[in-house]
Every structure is written in structure tokens, then in C-alpha cells.
Design brief:
Elements (H helix, E strand, L loop, with lengths): L2 H4 L1 H9 L21 E5 L2 E5 L12 H18 L3 H13 L5 E2 L3 E3 L2 E7 L7 E6 L7 E5 H4 L7 E7 L5 E7 L7 E6 L4 E7 L2 E6 L5 E7 L6 E8 L5 E6 L6 E6 L5 E7 L4 E7 L8 E2 L9 E6 L2 E6 L7 E6 L9 E4 L5 E8 L3 E8 L2 E8 L5 E3 L8 E4 L9 E7 L6 E6 L5 E6 L11 E9 L5 E9 L10 E5 L16 H4 L4 E6 L8 H5 L7 H16 L8 E6 L1 H12 L6 E5 L5 H5 L11 H4 L5 H8 L14 E7 L8 H13 L6 E6 L11 H18 L5
Parallel strand pairs: 34-35, 34-36, 36-37, 37-38, 38-39
Antiparallel strand pairs: 1-2, 3-5, 4-5, 5-6, 6-7, 8-9, 9-10, 10-11, 12-13, 13-14, 14-15, 16-17, 17-18, 18-19, 20-21, 21-22, 22-23, 24-25, 25-26, 26-27, 28-29, 29-30, 30-31, 32-33, 33-35
Length: about 700
């Protein structure tokens, strides 16, 4: 075969993403990573990893950085002919955003707090006004100035003392989610103290000078130490250290300001300690000792603790207990366990409490009066939506603030009167230009898994839909950690919908859409259900002629990237293209390295591969190990060098090996954010939008759409 002829299938693929003008001799060759075999003996297996060298934890190996840069250069070269399209997408997405904007202020103490943005600036500005909204503005944090000289900048904690004078805030300048804690005096704007590195959570005592914080281990990033610190002193008193490597520790303060809570938890078990916020030197008390697979969480009103517990069922029930003696003998049930309803959370106020419940995949908000015990649900207009509580800093109030949105309805902030049931729309996310909600339709579909389980899908599209199998469709999934994949509004997504793309979410097992059991059926030794569920959802969409295999692109990130790798190995014929973000694809090597962040705690999600049965099962689906000599779809892989949750070398190794295994000429592109960036990519809003435009140009190109 002539060298030019070898490029013909590649040129056809390039044409599909709008690259019709690139001359054959100009098509660059993909990078080739060197092979340095590393042999490991485990559980009777001899494992050879040719690309283990890419896992350079110092990130300074010139060969590693050279390979990553070569992949970036290759991706940029192949996508260069789409630059005008990317610019067009960026401009239209930016045109929908109100660049100079302000969110709804919320009251806390004597101040109203809010953030606002200014046109041309990457980051929000944190502000407040004293007394009422007509008062002069006070800037508490100007992120844009703070970010000067940094290619990445993020705020973690933002916690104001009770008297409103001091701000505890934390910053990350690398994307590694390693936050430094600072104290700013809001009266004169000066940083009065730099508290500690690697801080994960913060709470003030009521004396306005005592600070509690938790700190993570520098290597594993497990949050495990709980400190008390009096401002101005050199003493950082260690009150508790969580020794169990399966557990993380974090703190929060009750809305009542009565207690500071220390929660120690794994993914299956928890326990709570508490101390009185009014007495900075109060004793740290344990509410109930941990018991395997018992989770409980508490809140406070008056002389009662409200305890959400799964002691009688996986989906939790709600009990109360007197603060004076909260032992189980004094527990009083107020909401029983319900098999069909997941009790996701409880928020207590002076005269009512609010529960967040999920039924048939949909979040509900329930309000109960503390005096009468009468309950009602907040009503919502659409069958498929997401609603969650917003900033509710005040304890003694009849107002409940929540955010409501759907595929079609932009994010909307409401104040809801829990007595009259009246609601005030305070703000709906502006969508500038022409956006008519009536032009779009959202549906809930049902597919059937290979074992007969009913699966949920949520889809949205422009209404002029004919089920002829010709529509392009972007299918997204996650299915891990019990996290529900809620529908949400995205003004960026309009750029897909208006070009005829159907967008869908597969609510597969391993997630939390249908309660704890839904999670349990998609983890550990049942993890493969997640992958076969996603395939069943894709097959359903094809069978019902929403799309076809040559018009179907799939996407997912992190554990959703594991999903992408697994289903692509299982059914590469089912998908036109795959877009995967920070993908967890090197499962075995990561889960065998206990020094890596998150590894040990995740034994309860994936299994412990040091045990042979778990090793065998995980190895049977791990994307990296299961790459084969066969044809694969077109694939775009994205990651960040400073990602602390899925290390950059997982996708790097995956791409390097896939290049040697794939027998097709479909595109395989690998984009690495070498500048500081984290698990979520870039930190600046304009930078994120440019990345989004790149991805959309790639996706739309697979559908033959180039303008």
C-alpha cells in the first residue's frame, strides 16, 4: 500500500469533523510512546505494563512531559481546521451569558452576601452589604486580583465569624485541591493570619476567635486530623485523629449555631462527634460509636438532635433524640424507612425542618412544621427536574430558599414561605439572545437491562422530532458512588440542541437515582451492571429510532470515564465516537497503590484488589487491561496534569496503549491541560468556555456538522 493511500481512512474521519482542506502529506502522525516493560507478579498472574514509566509522580521527567506535549500538539494540529468553528461556538455560547451579573444576596447575621461578575474577568467577586441592600458594597474577596500571576485559582472555604468581622477562606493555585487557610479581617481588609496547609473544612466557635479545621494527609489526601486554634496563638490543638484509612473526617456547624459537628465516615459507615459552639473549650463527645454499614448524620433544634439513620433500612429514616442523652434508647421515629423513597438529607430551622427525598429518580422537598407536625411537599411544574436548597443561613425564618431547574428551565432561585406556600422568583439565569423554552421538549424514557431491571433515561431535544433513527444523539452517564445524575440546565447545550442533537442521560445502576439499593447493584462485585445498563440504554435509543449507532456519541468523566472505557471495550460497534474526561481507566494499578490519593477509601466502592476474588473481577472490566486488537470508535480523551483525583497518567497510559491496539484509522486525540488545572479542568470561566467550544466542535464534527 502506498503511504498516501494509508491516509485515506484518516482523511475521511478528518472530513467528518470539518477538516476537508488538509493536504494528505500534511496529516501528522500520532505520537508513539516508548515501551519500558515493567513486570509484576500478583495472585498467580504475570503482568507486564509497558507504560508504567508515564506515572512519574514528580511530573518532571522530560520524557513524560515530552510525550504529553506531543499529544497536545497532535490534537491541536488535527483540530486546527476547526478553529473558525470553535471560535463561532465560543462566541455564540458567550453571547448567551450575561457577563456582568450578580447572584441573589442571602442574609447571614447583619449582612447580605453575594457574588457578582464583571465582563472580561475570569472570576467572581465576593461582596456583602450591611443592614439592607441599599447599603454601600463591601468587597470581601476580589478573586481576579488574587488570581493575578496564577494560571489556576480556586476558593474553597468561605466562612465568616458570627460577629461578621473575620473571614476564614482557603485557596488553591494548582488545581490539586490542596487548600491553604487564611484569615482576613473584614474591617480593614488585612490578612491577619495564615492558618495551615491542606485544610479541608472550617467552622467558627461563637466567640469569634476560636477556629476549628480539618487537615488532610500530604500523600494520600485523606482528611483525618481535627484541630482547634485560637487566633493570635501559636497553638493548634489536635482534638481528634481518624486512624482508619477507610474514613475521612470533616466538620460543619449547625444552622442553630449550637454545635460544631465532626463527622468521620467511609462510604458505608459513619459516626458523629460534637462540641458546644458557645464554649470553645467544650469536650468533644461521641453521639454513637461506629458500627459496620450503619450511617447516621445529625442536625439540631432546641433540645433535640435530628438524626438521619439507615439502621432499619438502606434508604434512611429520621429520628429525634434529646441532646441531654441521645443514646438509641431515647430515639423517637418521625419519618419511617421507605423502600421506594430515599431520604437524602435533613435541614433544621427554628420552627420547621426540611427533608430532601428522592422517588423514582426525582428530588422532592418536604416541609414539616415542628409544632403541628404537619407536612407538605413543595410543588413543581415539570415531571423531570432538579431542585435543591440554596443558601439558607438564617435559623429563625419562615422563608426557604431553593434552586429549581430542568433541561428546559434555566436555573431559578425562589424564596418559599413555608406557612403560606407562596413563592417568589428572585432570579432566573439569564439566557441572552433568542431562547424560547417552548421550542424544546424533555422526556423520561425507560429501557430494560440485560437482567430485566427497568432503567431510567432523561432526554431533551427540539420539538420537531421524527423517530427515524437519523438524529444525532449525545448520551452521558456516570453510575458510581451513589451519586444521582440530575438533569440540569445548560445554556451551552443549546448549541447542540439547535443543531438537531438530542441530549440524553442514562441513570444507570451504581448511581443514586433510585436509592441506596440502586448504588449497591452497581458497585463492588456487581460493578458490571453499570456498564451493561449503559449499553442497554444506548440500544434502547437505537431501537426506538431516536438515533443510530453511526449517529451516537457518548461521554462521561472521572468514574464516568471508567464507564466510557469499559463500554467501548465491550461494544465498540455501538458508538460513533467517545469523549471522556479525566477517566479512571487504569483501575488495577491505581487500586493497588495505597499511597495514591483516595485509593484505600475506595476499596468499599470497587473492591480491594489485594484480595484475589476482587482482583479477578476488577481485572475483567478495567479498561486499560482489556484493550484488544480491534477497531475502536473515534475518541477524544481530556485530562489535567494536576488532577488529584484521577492522576494524569491513567489516561496517558490508556491512550498510549490504545494507539498500539486499535486496528482502525479513526481519530484518537488526547488533550492534556499542562498549565495548572484540576479534576474539573480550567478555573476561569472564559477558559472553560474555550475548552467547551473545542469539545463541541469535535462532537458536532462526528455528526457531520461543521457550522
Amino acid at each position: 500500500m502506498k503511504p498516501q493511500a494509508m491516509f485515506l481512512p484518516l482523511l475521511l474521519s478528518l472530513t467528518l469533523i470539518g477538516i476537508a482542506t488538509m493536504a494528505q502529506e500534511q496529516v501528522p502522525k500520532p505520537p508513539v510512546a516508548k515501551k519500558v516493560p515493567k513486570t509484576t507478579q500478583i495472585h498467580g498472574y504475570t503482568v507486564v505494563d509497558d507504560y508504567a514509566w508515564l506515572a512519574d509522580k514528580s511530573k518532571r521527567d522530560p520524557d513524560v512531559l515530552g510525550y504529553l506535549k506531543a499529544e497536545n500538539d497532535y490534537a491541536e494540529a488535527l483540530m486546527k481546521p476547526t478553529e473558525a468553528f470553535q471560535k463561532s461556538l465560543y462566541d455564540e455560547m458567550l453571547a448567551r451569558i450575561k457577563e456582568t451579573d450578580e447572584n441573589v444576596p442571602y442574609k447571614m447575621g447583619n449582612f447580605f452576601y453575594y457574588t457578582r461578575t464583571e465582563k472580561g474577568k475570569q472570576y467572581p467577586i465576593f461582596c456583602r452589604k450591611k443592614g439592607d441592600l441599599k447599603a454601600p458594597e463591601e468587597i470581601t474577596l476580589e478573586m481576579n486580583k488574587m488570581a493575578e500571576g496564577h494560571k489556576f485559582f480556586s476558593i474553597g472555604a468561605y466562612n465568616v465569624s458570627v460577629d461578621g468581622n473575620l473571614l476564614a477562606f482557603s485557596t488553591d493555585t494548582t488545581g490539586f485541591r490542596q487548600f491553604k487557610l487564611h484569615i482576613k479581617d473584614l474591617r480593614d481588609g488585612k490578612i491577619v493570619e495564615n492558618i495551615a496547609e491542606r485544610v479541608t473544612s472550617v467552622a467558627w466557635a461563637n466567640d469569634n476567635k476560636t477556629l476549628y479545621y480539618t487537615q488532610e494527609d500530604p500523600t494520600t489526601k485523606r482528611s483525618h486530623k481535627f484541630f482547634r486554634h485560637i487566633l493570635g496563638s501559636d497553638k493548634h490543638e489536635l482534638l481528634y485523629e481518624e486512624k482508619d484509612e477507610l474514613y475521612n473526617a470533616y466538620i460543619e456547624k449547625t444552622r442553630s449555631r449550637g454545635y460544631v459537628l465532626l463527622v468521620s465516615g467511609s462510604s458505608t459507615t459513619s459516626e458523629v462527634r460534637y462540641l458546644t459552639a458557645d464554649n470553645a473549650n467544650s469536650e468533644l463527645k461521641l453521639l454513637l460509636p461506629r458500627k459496620d454499614k450503619h450511617e447516621y448524620y445529625i442536625d439540631h433544634v432546641g433540645d433535640l438532635f435530628f438524626i438521619r439513620t439507615n439502621d432499619q433500612g438502606k434508604n434512611f429514616r429520621l429520628v429525634t433524640a434529646p441532646v441531654s442523652d441521645p443514646s438509641t434508647t431515647n430515639w423517637k421515629e418521625i419519618i419511617p424507612h421507605r423502600k421506594e423513597v430515599m431520604l437524602e438529607g435533613v435541614e433544621c430551622f427554628a420552627n420547621h425542618y426540611t427533608t430532601l427525598e428522592r422517588e423514582n429518580g426525582v428530588r422532592k422537598i418536604r416541609v414539616t412544621d415542628l409544632k403541628s407536625s404537619q407536612s407538605h411537599y413543595v410543588e413543581f411544574p415539570e415531571p423531570v427536574y432538579v431542585a435543591f436548597l440554596s443558601q439558607n443561613a438564617e435559623f429563625d425564618t419562615t422563608k426557604l430558599r431553593f434552586n429549581y431547574q430542568s433541561f428546559i428551565t434555566p436555573a431559578s432561585v425562589f424564596d418559599y414561605d413555608v406557612r403560606s406556600k407562596d413563592r417568589d422568583l428572585l432570579k432566573q439565569q439569564p439566557v441572552l439572545g433568542v431562547y424560547d423554552m417552548k421550542l424544546y421538549k424533555s422526556e423520561r424514557l425507560y429501557a430494560t437491562a440485560s437482567d430485566g431491571t427497568k432503567l431510567l433515561l432523561s432526554i431533551v431535544y427540539r420539538k420537531e422530532l421524527t423517530n427515524d433513527g437519523k438524529r444525532p444523539l449525545l448520551l452521558e452517564g456516570y453510575g458510581s458512588y451513589g451519586f444521582p445524575y440530575d438533569v440540569n440546565f445548560s445554556s451551552n447545550r443549546i448549541s447542540l440542541l439547535d443543531r438537531g442533537v438530542i441530549y440524553a442521560i442514562a441513570h444507570i445502576r451504581g448511581g443514586g437515582e433510585l436509592g441506596k439499593e440502586w448504588h449497591d447493584q452497581g458497585k463492588m462485585m456487581a460493578k458490571k451492571n453499570t456498564f451493561t445498563d449503559f449499553i442497554a440504554c444506548a440500544e434502547h435509543l437505537i431501537k426506538e429510532k431516536y438515533t443510530s449507532a453511526d449517529r451516537l456519541v457518548i461521554t462521561g468523566g472521572s468514574a464516568g470515564g471508567l464507564l466510557m472505557g469499559a463500554v467501548t471495550n465491550l461494544r465498540p460497534d455501538l458508538f460513533k465516537a467517545v469523549v471522556t474526561y479525566v477517566p479512571f481507566v487504569d483501575v488495577m494499578n491505581t487500586m493497588l497503590d495505597a499511597s495514591l490519593p483516595l485509593t484505600v477509601g475506595e476499596y468499599l466502592e470497587w473492591g480491594n484488589p489485594n484480595e484475589k476474588p476482587a482482583y479477578d473481577y476488577m481485572r475483567s472490566y478495567s479498561p486499560y487491561e482489556n484493550l484488544e486488537k480491534k477497531a475502536y470508535p473515534t475518541i477524544l480523551v481530556r485530562t489535567s496534569l494536576n488532577d488529584s483525583q484521577v492522576m494524569y497518567w491513567e489516561p496517558a497510559k490508556y491512550v498510549a496503549r490504545l494507539r498500539t491496539m486499535k486496528t482502525d484509522n479513526n481519530l484518537l486525540l488526547f488533550k492534556v491541560k499542562l498549565d495548572p488545572g484540576g479534576h474539573g479542568g480550567a478555573s476561569g470561566r472564559y477558559d472553560r468556555l474555550r475548552d467547551n467550544a473545542f469539545d463541541y466542535a469535535f462532537i458536532l464534527g462526528q455528526f457531520g456538522i461543521g457550522k
